[in-house]
């Protein structure tokens, strides 16, 4: 049983319960019965007929009407060859909405196919009925949807709803919805008011309507005849535009920071294995990849054994990915890399070989194709700020996570002796040995740590993009750039470089385009290194020689 | 406490140490003398375990340590001041000194004991400076400090006075004397500064072309035999 | 990044002494002779003949020799001057593109759209050649570009990088940035080099049918001659006092300044020389493989070049040639016999080479030779 | 033993002299724009301050060295002696102050390479040689020649140059190690090799930072002799902590004592050794 | 020889392995099927698999090896246009035969190649027509979003010309390109959102390979639903969706000539065969294998070649080419499709599907029957005169 099915089941169950509790007050509505003939076009009508049926269902004040629409939207409405319409309740159980009885889903019943047009119609239809829902949240969402619809036929309904509405948020939303319809009113004062109201929303969605008022027709006459209304529309447009540019700016900043966190997570492990230990670790990308595949495996495990906890598989994947990649890293260190210290360029060759092997290994085990890793529900979607800027939860989670990992690394490196020992070893392996550092063990631990961090990065990356054998290659160059730009061996430098690269990229992209932005960034890196030949935080003085 | 028997060492084809034997007792200072390039540093490296020996044995407190890694020897209480200082250039002075205590458990290696700064006051003022930025002499002082904070039972010093100002050389001599007087530490001192060595040594060994050509106690150190092996 | 790297054999040669030992000369000439013979065996003998060499083999070897030349060029900067370039692909590709421009124009009106413009330009509605395509219909001018374009890019890039004293990994990484940026640039259709398809479907070179066996043979011989010349030139440079300055540069650049050498000039010289050599290799490569596209500028390609050098033996000149041949030969072989598992084999070989042949294949051979020598003269 | 050493020294002197006079011959094009030493001074340091993040390694240091003078500089560890040499050779840019080579060459405006061309050579405190190059190659690289790219590419070792290398090898006693990589030499041998490299450079001003550190007494003595020979024809600045050695080369010449980045005392060895402040901060009681 | 050698030239490593590996497997399956049915001309087929490793010059080398060394009678392979372009000269020079199974940008016709994938008019144009239709949402503004290389550039050029012909103004078309392997679509999605406030908007995506997943994830999380701004993609099929959580994508579209969800007996058999093969060969993730358009095209190609060989009674390239024209085959896409006599492309039906939560497609629109390919798009000036070979 898949995740969707479970969720749907619960949604369904809650809905049914709701219906039952509402049943007494909806008694009056019971009279208007759901008619099989009304539903028939859903099964075999053409699009027009289906649209009509949906619209009728939307106006039907029957609780099951909404249920039918919802089922249709989520592809849970079935039809038998005989034209009987059934709502799938989950687990092969179905309900006949006409009779209201439950039965087993007949084997020959088929899900009713809908397309985007129908889907849109369903949302619209549901919105109208939802305007009168008990739940203010539902009402609010419905009102918001109606703001954009511009369907004049709803104006009476909105007015009706507005009259009853007590919740201030919903009222405000309804007023805007009303205003957007008022724009079509013949009364200039109403139109002016509407334009002002729309301007106050700061919502870019109203821009075209307002701009439309200022447009001229072929004869040179304004669409909006009234001077004062036009002035109001102009002011409203300005206001919206100002707001939009604020949003854009804030958006770029957020996108920059979020891209920066991704780069940071991709690079942090390398900051240890390469920055601190001096291993030109070409297999770094593959360690990221392993982290991502561990996430995938955890998801499979959860689906199999703990479907109720599926939303938390990512959390569980963190320690597992850390341990798994750390183990791989330590194994590599002991078998290959430990013989190559002091010959950094040879590490390039060997780790390149390792990366080929790891990549092909994953292809053999999991196939060359990507595997599916889905965002847990708490990481899907986003929060809307400033009325238009969507900060998606997975990005937010990754920013927070990146900061946590940086903190963790910082703690380990600066508040345990490990960091000191690692730095001492890379600077003078022999002397570190002489003062009593068990170099072999420290190397192994440090490489394991770097690899483990890469694994954590892999978990994060799995939430944003592909999980496939090539995952690592895409991040390899970027990771090296970040580490080098920050100054090899400088944690703070790595953080700043990642954030800097991310932000510059995102501020460049809107006007240069993604391709030129990327090229520009690379050129900037080349130029920057001219100014700071040892990276951002380069130690200076005698000690560097 | 230290007993070296017939140690041979080769660099590729060249036979650098030829059957070197020496013994050092607790509370004594042994001076290792010899011209440039005779193998003094090589011998000390073999004792520390930085270089493997081809044959022979090195025993410390009666245990054969000739196959142990340097850090295992450090853990047994051997500290080393190498020729050329080998400061961790990009660690701060403080971190360099902390590294000296690497062989100790972490809990007892958090703080640096103040005594060391009495001997080398400059280091206290430069704790935050990077080791590599120090002047040559300061680095040498740091190297000695790093060895002493380990509270070793055997100190191996390879030309500790190189590049150090005269007044501090006197101080270092004082410290070595002090350590020797404590009686529980062995000191192996390789030194070109003859007067310094003579002043501190209880025993001496002269190397020439990788062989022990003369050995004896304090009283014999000024003898012609020794001088002959030290002049060009 | 100054790896404690010791040349496989200490330079026993007195400075200013001959280029190769007589034995080495003999070996070199023999190798060239054998390689030169192969196309003849292909042209002269019928396919059934036991000594017949298939045209596939000849084409393959021709390609490998181009790779070998690129590896040789890389060894000059990496093995001797210690400058690790992770961006040599860009020089290779630029040389290839420069020659490719000529080859595209040599197609004439035989393209799909029968225009005087290359197909991709017709397709983009371009009516004229952009300015940078001017004169590329002249072979000699194109050859000049083959040398000048990679050379100029290397010179400018090198000048700024070396002047700022960018070293070690920092240099490596910005060369990577350079090639990556170039790749993205060449991927764009608007850049005027055919986007990611690059140039292909060449018809003729200097009026000869490019697919004719004897044209192929001629290209092969040209490549062989170029490779041999490059080897001798590289050897001459590394055996000169300048070669010793380069290795000194690799080990301790600042010390070199204090005795009066300005590293900038030396680095720039060898860097540019290497880029030009690489560009020539690229130019020879294009007519033989029949395509040049931005893939050659990908970071992977450049890293692979480094791997050829390392596998063959860094700082030995002959090593990179051997390495390029060996790695690519194995790749060719593995991709046919072990199509699904060849990456394991190749990866394993890289790992084992580093672990057990730190001086590469040539280092191993030298070691074996000196051991034999030692046994003979106890 | 003695006579042969004397002969070597003579040979070396001869080589150096030849180079001095024959400025037209093979190296014509490198010839530095002539150091103007009309006032008899080869090096002026005037108010030099070097500070590292606020710490003043040199503090308003003024010092000058005459043509042909052998100047000993002593001072406590960290006094700024090496930093001073760094400033002279262009490794460190002074925060303020001027440094002139002769009357006319402003050292603060030149890079390391140009300064070396102008005629200043340096031996570092820690021996720094090209570890992967043989002893011979180290000397060859250091040898005075046109050190630009093209001449270097086509350089051929002339008989004279080979001889000069040979006699230097003799002098630094590394004849039997000619083809060993310098990295494999012992510490003392590296010291000698670096001195040899310095001599091959034939500079007008030689800066020697602790030349005898790690040498045996006998070798120290030999070095002293060598420096004494060079005195007069070349100008030298020697930094050492070995007082006996300093006394032996300073003779009646001036010794400068640095302390905390500026000159603490200056005078003959005897005067300086008697100075209470010097005893306090440097010599110890 | 008692076998007929058949070359399979698909990348099994490198960036393209993700798409091409399954084509190799389908090809092997088809060959096995043919062999089980008695082979061709009474001989068994012997597949020669090589790995060109997503490296274009290596494609040329391997093609030469297959033709010159291994002497294969036909090669099935290549995915990207550049790999096809790279091997073309080799096929022409050695007079080999290549079957190319992937939709591409057209503007090409070679005697030695049979194109079993779609030309732009068999995929892109119907898709945009659909988006403009009432059912498709009546889009009036278009974002043409692609990876910066030839296929997207060409397709978008054709689409732009097509949109012009439908009266769409340039100000209502936005062309956006991203580099290969681009993984950060935040800005682009934000821009699409902004652009869509200007009127009914649809996105035509020619994003290549690995970039699709980050794009769709971003789209989903930014709250752009298919009902607001539908995205139609030409490179996203069942195989690609296997690697994605398809739920946020529901309602977005793809245009192909085949979907696994098409219901007919031929397709059912094809799917079963593939599933059984995957299980028998223990392919990775055998339990979840799917079929897709290029796989079907590969399958058709091999069968048609077999028919042509049998008709020509020879594997001789020229004879087979001559026999190929007019071959018909009852394909899993539900029609008996035909190889065009003159342009070496298949007549194919076009389907538009909406993504479902399970990674399959709902067919929401289809052509009445197979349509003829126009490799030379009439929307590109100068192509009018070009038709067949
Ligand atoms: N790594 C090495 N490989 C080969 N030979 C070496 C190596 N290190 C030192 N040698 C040689 O071994 C001999 C002994 O060197 P060692 O450093 O032990 O001398 P030393 O007595 O310490 O001299 P010094 O007084 O100059 O420090 C020298 O001839 C030196 O050239
Ligand atoms: N880059 C730097 N950053 C901070 N301090 C520095 C730096 N370089 C030098 N110093 C400090 O400057 C002072 C002068 O150092 P210098 O090396 O010149 O001393 P010195 O006189 O040569 O000493 P010694 O006799 O020990 O060689 C020292 O205290 C040193 O720590
Ligand atoms: Mg020594
Ligand atoms: Mg000093």
UniProtKB/TrEMBL annotation, chain A:
- Write the signal peptide boundaries: 1-28
What keywords are assigned to this protein? Answer: Amino-acid transport, Cell membrane, Membrane, Signal, Transmembrane, Transmembrane helix, Transport
Q: Which residues cross the membrane?
A: 253-280, 287-306, 312-332, 344-366, 386-413, 480-504, 510-529
GO BP terms in the entry = amino acid transport
Biological source species: Pollutimonas bauzanensis
Q: List locations, semicolon-separated.
A: Cell membrane
Lineage at the top is: Bacteria, Pseudomonadati, Pseudomonadota, Betaproteobacteria, Burkholderiales
Q: Indicate what this protein is called per its UniProt record.
A: Urea transport system permease protein
Q: Which GO terms describe its cellular component?
A: plasma membrane
Q: Which domain of life is it from?
A: Bacteria
From TrEMBL, chain B:
Question: Organism classification, top ranks?
Answer: Bacteria, Pseudomonadati, Pseudomonadota, Betaproteobacteria, Burkholderiales
Entry's family note: Belongs to the ABC transporter superfamily.
Does the keyword rRNA-binding feature in the UniProt annotation?
Answer: no
Q: Which UniProt keywords apply?
A: Amino-acid transport, ATP-binding, Cell membrane, Membrane, Nucleotide-binding, Transport
Molecular function, one GO term:
branched-chain amino acid transmembrane transporter activity
The name this protein goes by in its record: Amino acid/amide ABC transporter ATP-binding protein 2, HAAT family (TC 3.A.1.4.-)
Query: Which terms does the UniProt entry file under GO BP?
Result: L-amino acid transport
Please give the start and end residues of each transmembrane region: none
Q: Which domain of life is it from?
A: Bacteria
Q: Does the keyword ATP-binding apply?
A: yes
Query: What InterPro entries does its record include?
Result: AAA+_ATPase, ABC_transporter-like_ATP-bd, ABC_transptr_urea_ATP-bd_UrtE, BCAA_Transport_ATP-bd_LivF, P-loop_NTPase
The ABC transporter domain covers which part of the protein?
Answer: 2-232
From TrEMBL, chain C:
A single MF term (Gene Ontology): branched-chain amino acid transmembrane transporter activity
Q: Which residues form a coiled coil?
A: none
Keyword line: Cell membrane, Membrane, Transmembrane, Transmembrane helix
Where's it found, cell-wise? Cell membrane
Transmembrane residue ranges: 24-45, 77-98, 139-162, 169-187, 264-286, 341-365
The protein's superkingdom reads Bacteria
Q: What is this protein called?
A: Urea transport system permease protein
| Protein species of origin | Pollutimonas bauzanensis
From TrEMBL, chain D:
> Which CDD domains does the record associate with it?
ABC_Mj1267_LivG_branched
Q: Start and end of every ABC transporter domain?
A: 43-285
The domain of life for this entry's organism is: Bacteria
What Pfam families does the database record attribute to this sequence? ABC_tran (PF00005), BCA_ABC_TP_C (PF12399)
Gene3D superfamilies from the UniProt entry = P-loop containing nucleotide triphosphate hydrolases (3.40.50.300)
Looking up InterPro entries in the UniProt record yields: ABC_AA/LPS_Transport (IPR051120), ABC_transporter-like_ATP-bd (IPR003439), ABC_transptr_urea_ATP-bd_UrtD (IPR017781), BCA_ABC_TP_C (IPR032823), P-loop_NTPase (IPR027417)
Q: Which UniProt keywords apply?
A: ATP-binding, Nucleotide-binding, Transport
Q: Which GO terms describe its cellular component?
A: plasma membrane
Q: Which PROSITE patterns match?
A: ABC_TRANSPORTER_2
Give GO terms: molecular function aspect only. Answer: ATP binding; ATP hydrolysis activity
Q: Could you confirm whether the keyword ATP-binding appears in this record?
A: yes
What PANTHER family does the database record attribute to this sequence?
CONSERVED COMPONENT OF ABC TRANSPORTER FOR NATURAL AMINO ACIDS-RELATED, HIGH-AFFINITY BRANCHED-CHAIN AMINO ACID TRANSPORT ATP-BINDING PROTEIN
What is the official name of this protein in its record?
Urea transport system ATP-binding protein
| Species the sequence originates in | Pollutimonas bauzanensis
């Amino acid at each position: 049983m898949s995740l969707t099915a479970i969720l749907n089941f619960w949604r369904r169950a809650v809905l049914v319960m709701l219906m039952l509790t509402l049943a007494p007050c909806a008694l009056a509505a019971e009279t208007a019965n759901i008619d099989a003939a009304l539903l028939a076009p859903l099964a075999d009508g053409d699009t027009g007929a289906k649209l009509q049926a949906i619209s009728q269902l939307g106006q039907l004040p029957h609780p099951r009407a909404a249920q039918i629409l919802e089922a249709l939207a989520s592809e849970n409405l079935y039809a038998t060859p005989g034209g009987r319409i059934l709502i799938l309740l989950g687990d092969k159980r179905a309900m006949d909405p006409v009779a209201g009885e439950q039965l087993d889903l007949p084997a020959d019943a088929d899900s009713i196919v809908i397309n985007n047009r129908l889907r849109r119609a369903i949302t619209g239809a549901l919105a109208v009925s939802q305007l009168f829902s008990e739940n203010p949240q539902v009402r609010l969402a419905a009102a918001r949807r109606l703001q954009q619809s511009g369907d004049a036929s709803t104006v009476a309904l909105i007015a009706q709803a507005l009259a009853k509405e007590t919740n201030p948020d919903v009222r405000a939303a309804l007023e805007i919805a009303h205003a957007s319809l008022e724009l079509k009113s013949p009364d200039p004062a109403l139109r002016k008011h509407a334009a002002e109201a729309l301007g106050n929303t700061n919502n870019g969605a109203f821009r075209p309507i307002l701009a439309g008022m200022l447009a001229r027709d072929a004869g040179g006459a304004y669409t909006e005849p009234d001077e004062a209304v036009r002035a109001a529309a102009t002011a409203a447009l300005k206001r919206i535009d100002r707001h939009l540019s604020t949003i854009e700016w804030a958006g770029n900043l957020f996108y920059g920071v979020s891209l920066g966190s991704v780069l940071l997570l991709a690079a942090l492990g390398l900051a240890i294995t390469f920055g601190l230990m001096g291993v030109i670790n070409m297999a770094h990308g593959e360690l990221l990849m392993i982290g991502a595949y561990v996430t995938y495996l955890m998801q499979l495990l959860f689906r199999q054994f703990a479907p109720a906890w599926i939303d938390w598989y990512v959390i569980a994947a963190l320690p597992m990915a850390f341990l798994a990649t750390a183990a791989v890293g330590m194994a590599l260190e002991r078998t290959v890399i430990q013989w190559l210290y002091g010959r950094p360029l040879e590490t390039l060759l060997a780790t390149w070989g390792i990366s080929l092997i790891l990549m092909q290994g994953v292809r053999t085990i999991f196939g060359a194709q990507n595997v599916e890793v889905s965002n847990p529900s708490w990481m899907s979607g986003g929060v809307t700020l400033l009325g238009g800027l969507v900060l998606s939860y997975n990005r937010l989670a990754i920013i927070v996570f990146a900061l946590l990992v940086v903190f963790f690394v910082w703690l380990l490196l600066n508040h345990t002796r490990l960091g000191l020992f690692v730095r001492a070893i890379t600077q003078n392996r022999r002397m570190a040995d002489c003062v009593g550092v068990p170099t072999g063990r420290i190397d192994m631990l440090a490489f394991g740590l770097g690899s483990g961090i890469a694994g954590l990065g892999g978990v994060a990356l799995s939430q944003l993009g592909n999980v496939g054998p090539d995952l690592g290659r895409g991040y390899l160059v970027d990771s090296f750039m970040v580490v080098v730009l920050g100054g090899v061996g400088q944690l703070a430098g790595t953080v700043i470089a990642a954030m800097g690269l991310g932000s510059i990229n995102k501020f460049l992209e809107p006007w240069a385009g993604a391709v030129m932005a990327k090229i520009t960034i690379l050129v900037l890196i080349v130029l920057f290194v001219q100014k700071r030949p040892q990276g951002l935080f380069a130690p200076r003085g005698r000690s560097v020689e | 406490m230290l007993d070296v028997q017939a140690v041979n060492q080769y660099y590729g084809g060249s036979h650098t140490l030829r059957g070197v034997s020496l013994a050092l007792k607790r509370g004594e200072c042994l001076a290792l003398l010899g011209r440039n390039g005779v193998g003094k540093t090589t011998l000390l490296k073999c004792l520390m375990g930085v270089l493997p020996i081809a044959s022979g044995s090195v025993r410390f407190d009666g245990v054969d340590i000739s196959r142990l890694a340097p850090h295992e020897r450090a853990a047994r209480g051997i500290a080393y001041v190498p020729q050329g200082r080998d400061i961790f250039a990009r660690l701060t002075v403080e971190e360099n000194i902390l590294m000296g205590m690497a062989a100790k458990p972490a809990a007892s290696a958090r703080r640096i004991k103040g005594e060391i700064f009495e001997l080398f006051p400059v280091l206290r003022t430069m704790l935050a400076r990077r080791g590599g930025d120090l002047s040559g002499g300061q680095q040498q002082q740091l190297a000695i400090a790093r060895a002493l904070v380990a509270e070793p039972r055997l100190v191996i010093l390879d030309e500790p006075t190189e590049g150090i100002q005269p007044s501090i050389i006197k101080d270092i001599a004082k410290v070595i004397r002090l350590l020797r007087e404590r009686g529980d530490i062995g000191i192996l001192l390789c030194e070109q500064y003859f007067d310094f060595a003579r002043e501190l040594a209880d025993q001496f060994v002269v190397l020439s072309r990788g062989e022990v050509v003369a050995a004896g106690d304090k009283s014999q150190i000024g003898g012609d035999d020794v001088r002959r092996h030290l002049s060009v | 990044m100054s790896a404690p790297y010791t040349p496989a054999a200490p330079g026993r040669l007195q400075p200013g002494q001959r280029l190769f030992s007589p034995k080495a000369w003999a070996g070199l000439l023999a190798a060239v002779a054998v390689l030169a013979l192969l196309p003849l065996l292909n042209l002269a003998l019928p396919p059934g003949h036991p000594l017949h060499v298939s045209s596939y083999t000849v084409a393959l070897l021709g390609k490998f020799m181009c790779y070998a030349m690129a590896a040789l060029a890389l060894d000059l900067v990496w093995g001797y001057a210690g400058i690790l370039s992770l961006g040599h692909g860009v020089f290779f590709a630029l040389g290839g593109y420069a020659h490719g421009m000529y080859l595209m124009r040599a197609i004439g009106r035989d393209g799909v759209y029968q225009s005087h413009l290359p197909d991709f330009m017709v397709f983009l509605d371009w009516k004229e050649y952009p300015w940078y395509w001017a004169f590329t219909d002249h072979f000699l001018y194109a050859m000049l570009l083959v040398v000048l374009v990679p050379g100029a890019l290397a010179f400018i890039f090198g000048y700024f990088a070396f002047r700022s004293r960018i070293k070690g990994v920092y240099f490596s990484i910005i060369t990577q940035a350079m090639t990556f940026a170039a790749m993205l640039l060449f991927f764009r259709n608007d850049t005027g080099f055919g986007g990611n398809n690059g140039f292909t479907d060449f018809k003729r070179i200097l009026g000869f049918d490019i697919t004719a066996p004897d044209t192929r043979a001629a290209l092969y011989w040209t490549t062989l001659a170029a490779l041999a010349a490059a080897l001798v030139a590289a050897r001459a440079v590394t055996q000169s006092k300048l070669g010793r300055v380069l290795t000194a540069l690799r080990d301790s650049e600042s010390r070199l300044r204090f005795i009066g050498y300005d590293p900038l000039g030396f680095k720039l010289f060898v860097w540019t020389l290497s880029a030009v050599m690489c560009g020539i290799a690229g130019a020879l490569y294009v007519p033989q493989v029949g395509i040049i596209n931005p893939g050659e500028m990908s970071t992977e390609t450049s890293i692979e070049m480094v791997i050829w050098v390392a596998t063959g033996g860094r700082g030995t000149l002959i090593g990179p040639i051997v390495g390029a041949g060996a790695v690519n030969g194995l790749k060719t072989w593995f991709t046919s016999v072990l199509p699904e598992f060849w990456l394991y084999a190749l990866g394993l070989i890289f790992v084992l080479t580093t672990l057990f042949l730190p001086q590469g294949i040539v280092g191993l051979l030298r070691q074996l030779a000196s051991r034999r020598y030692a046994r003979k003269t106890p | 033993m003695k006579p042969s050493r004397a002969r070597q020294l003579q040979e070396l002197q001869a080589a150096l002299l030849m180079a001095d006079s024959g400025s037209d011959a093979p190296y014509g094009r490198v010839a530095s724009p002539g150091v103007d030493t009309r006032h008899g001074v080869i090096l002026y340091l005037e108010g030099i301050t070097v500070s590292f993040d606020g710490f003043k390694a040199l503090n308003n240091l003024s010092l000058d060295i005459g043509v042909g003078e052998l100047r000993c500089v002593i001072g406590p560890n960290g006094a700024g002696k090496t930093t001073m040499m760094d400033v002279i050779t262009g490794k460190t840019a002074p925060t303020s102050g001027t440094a002139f080579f002769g009357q006319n060459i402003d050292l603060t405006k030149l890079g390391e390479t140009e300064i070396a061309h102008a005629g200043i050579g340096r031996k570092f405190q820690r021996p720094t040689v090209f570890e992967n190059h043989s002893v011979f190659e180290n000397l060859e690289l250091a040898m005075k020649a046109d050190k630009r790219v093209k001449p270097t590419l086509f350089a051929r070792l002339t008989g004279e140059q080979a001889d000069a290398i040979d006699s230097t090898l003799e002098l630094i006693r590394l004849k039997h190690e000619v083809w060993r990589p310098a990295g494999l030499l012992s510490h003392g041998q590296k010291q000698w090799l670096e001195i040899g490299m310095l001599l091959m450079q034939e500079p007008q001003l030689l800066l020697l930072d602790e030349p005898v550190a790690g040498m045996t007494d006998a070798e120290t003595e030999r070095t002293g002799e060598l420096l004494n020979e060079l005195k007069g024809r070349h100008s030298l600045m020697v930094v050492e902590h070995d007082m006996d050695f300093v006394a032996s080369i300073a003779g009646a010449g001036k010794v400068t004592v640095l302390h905390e980045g500026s000159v603490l005392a200056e005078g003959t060895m005897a005067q300086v050794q008697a100075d209470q402040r010097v005893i306090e901060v440097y010599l110890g009681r | 020889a008692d076998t007929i050698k058949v070359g399979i030239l698909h990348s099994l490593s490198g960036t393209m392995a993700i798409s091409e590996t399954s084509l190799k497997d389908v090809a092997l399956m088809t060959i096995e099927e043919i062999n089980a049915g008695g082979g061709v001309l009474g001989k068994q087929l012997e597949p020669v698999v090589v790995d060109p490793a997503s490296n274009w010059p290596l494609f040329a080398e391997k093609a030469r090896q297959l033709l010159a060394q291994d002497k294969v009678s036909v090669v099935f392979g290549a995915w990207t246009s550049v790999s096809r372009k790279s091997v073309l000269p080799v096929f022409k020079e050695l007079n080999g035969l290549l079957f190319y199974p992937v939709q591409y940008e057209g503007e090409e016709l070679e005697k030695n190649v049979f194109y079993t994938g779609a030309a732009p008019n068999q995929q892109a144009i119907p898709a945009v027509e659909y988006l403009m239709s009432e059912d498709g949402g009546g889009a009036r503004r278009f974002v043409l979003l692609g990876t910066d290389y030839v296929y997207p550039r060409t397709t978008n050029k054709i689409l732009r010309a097509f949109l012009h012909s439908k009266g769409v103004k340039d100000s209502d078309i936005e062309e956006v390109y991203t580099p290969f392997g681009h993984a950060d679509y935040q800005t682009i999605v934000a821009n699409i959102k902004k652009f869509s406030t200007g009127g009914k908007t649809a996105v035509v995506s020619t994003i290549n390979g690995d970039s699709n997943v980050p794009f769709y994830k971003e789209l989903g999380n930014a709250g752009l639903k298919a009902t607001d701004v539908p995205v139609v993609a030409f490179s996203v099929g069942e195989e690609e969706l296997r690697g994605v959580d398809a739920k946020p994508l529901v309602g977005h579209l793809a245009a192909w000539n085949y979907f696994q969800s098409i219901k007919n007996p031929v397709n059912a058999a094809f799917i079963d065969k593939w599933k059984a093969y995957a299980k028998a060969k223990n392919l990775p993730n055998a339990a979840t294998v799917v079929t897709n358009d290029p796989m079907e095209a590969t399958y058709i190609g091999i069968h048609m070649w077999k028919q042509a060989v049998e008709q020509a009674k020879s594997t001789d390239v020229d004879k087979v080419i001559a026999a190929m024209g007019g071959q018909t085959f009852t394909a899993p896409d539900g029609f008996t499709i035909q190889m065009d006599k003159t342009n070496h492309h298949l007549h194919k039906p076009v389907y538009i599907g909406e993504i479902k939560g399970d990674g399959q497609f709902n067919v929401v629109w289809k052509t009445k029957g197979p349509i003829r390919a126009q490799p030379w798009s009439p929307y590109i000036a100068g192509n009018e005169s070009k038709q067949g070979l």
